[in-house]
UniProtKB/TrEMBL annotation:
Keywords: Signal. Residues 1-34 form the signal peptide. Its main location: other. PROSITE patterns: TAT (PS51318). InterPro entries: Peripla_BP_I, SBP_2_dom, TAT_signal. It comes from Nitratireductor aquimarinus. This is ABC transporter substrate-binding protein.
């Protein structure tokens, strides 16, 4: 199991979470009196949690799984969870459906899921809800509302803010490349949809072409390298993912091309390249701790708490005035990882109280 962050950071966070978890145990013992969607039946702590992962290869996913595992350990100490079932669909939505069905057959108490398809999972997710299982969906979302909660940043807002920054940097005129994550993944599609109204309102911005790649540096760099040969004039890169941005910067650098204004995410490599190359950059963050928050929300629902149907997590903005604060913590994260913000139970409770 990959757990990200420094040991000291984990210990500090664990202490905070352990104290809060102990108090939650006192308040939440006994059978749940269901208030949240999907919860039904005589489900009592300690609970079994299913983590239906779409794929575990990208570092972002490994870090996210690390926050899930860490949260489960705290809940185990509080007597609220006894087991975590983990599956890896290796990018195949049909395999993910089979894994979720296996969790339903095993009658787990909660399923936490990042969807490999926004619509293909609807039937099996709805079935889990009908069986009284808490279902918390984060990051890449399903279409069905038959879940206990959906947790996400606003991906449309993400795309719109990135596009507006690019328009402002270029003074409304220029040729750009748009870099997207995998097609059909809601977080990728929604970011792109969010950018479109801004681009439509600024016809001086010409989209030369677009890419769709995994959220990994190597395929993004390969894709951008090909585009550099085909496009001698590129004024900006509207990248809608952090690893994509790092791949783009590396491609420009290795082809001897001048860097251009580039948007991105809190990927450590991108932030480091941004500083090293004196890049004109903009970034935001999809926090890895959305996974930990999802587990916490599921257990709260099972304990009878009224969990919101949608939990919106605010987007930070990383710019020249804030990047140093992220880079100061870089050594706490993998070289190919994401520098995400700290989290604790107080933050989780605040978000659940929306």
């Amino acid at each position: 199991m990959h757990l990200s962050g420094s040991e000291n950071s984990r210990r500090r966070r664990g202490l905070l979470m352990g104290v809060a978890a102990a108090s939650m145990l006192v308040a939440g013992s006994g059978a749940a009196s269901a208030a949240a969607n999907c919860i039904q039946g005589d489900r009592e702590a300690p609970y079994t949690i299913g983590w239906a992962n779409i794929y575990s290869v990208p570092t972002w996913m490994k870090q996210t799984e690390g926050t899930i595992a860490a949260e489960v350990e705290e809940l185990k100490k509080a007597g609220l969870v006894d087991d975590l079932m983990i599956t890896d669909a290796q990018g195949n939505a049909q395999t993910q459906i089979q894994h979720i069905q296996s969790m339903i057959d095993a009658n787990v108490d909660a399923i936490v899921v990042i969807a490999g398809s926004s619509n293909a999972l609807d039937r099996v997710i709805s079935d889990a809800c009908d069986k009284g299982i808490a279902v918390v969906n984060f990051d890449s979302l399903v279409n069905t509302d038959k879940v206990t909660a959906k947790i996400n940043t606003d991906s449309g807002e993400w795309g719109a803010a990135a596009a507006q920054w690019m328009v402002d940097q270029l003074g409304g005129e220029g040729k750009i490349i748009v870099m997207n994550g995998p097609a059909g993944i809601s977080v990728s599609d929604d970011r792109r949809k969010g950018a479109q109204p801004v681009l439509d309102a600024n016809p001086g911005i010409e989209i030369l072409t677009e890419t769709n790649t995994e959220y990994n540096v190597a395929p993004a760099q390969e894709a951008m390298t090909s585009l550099l040969f085909a496009n001698p004039e590129i004024d900006g890169v509207l990248s809608l993912g952090g690893a994509l941005s790092a791949g783009s910067v590396l491609a420009f650098d290795r082809q001897g091309r001048d860097q251009v204004p580039t948007t991105g995410e809190n990927a450590r490599q991108f932030l480091e390249l941004w500083k090293e190359k004196g890049l004109e950059g903009w970034a935001t963050m999809q926090p890895n701790w959305l996974g930990a928050l999802s587990v916490y929300a599921a257990v709260q629902a099972l304990e009878g708490k009224d969990v919101p149907a949608f939990i919106k997590v605010p987007l930070p903005v990383i710019g020249d005035d804030t990047i140093d604060g992220y880079l100061a913590r870089a050594d706490q994260f993998p070289a190919d990882g994401y520098i995400y913000s700290d989290y604790d139970r107080a933050l989780f409770d605040k978000l659940l109280a929306q």
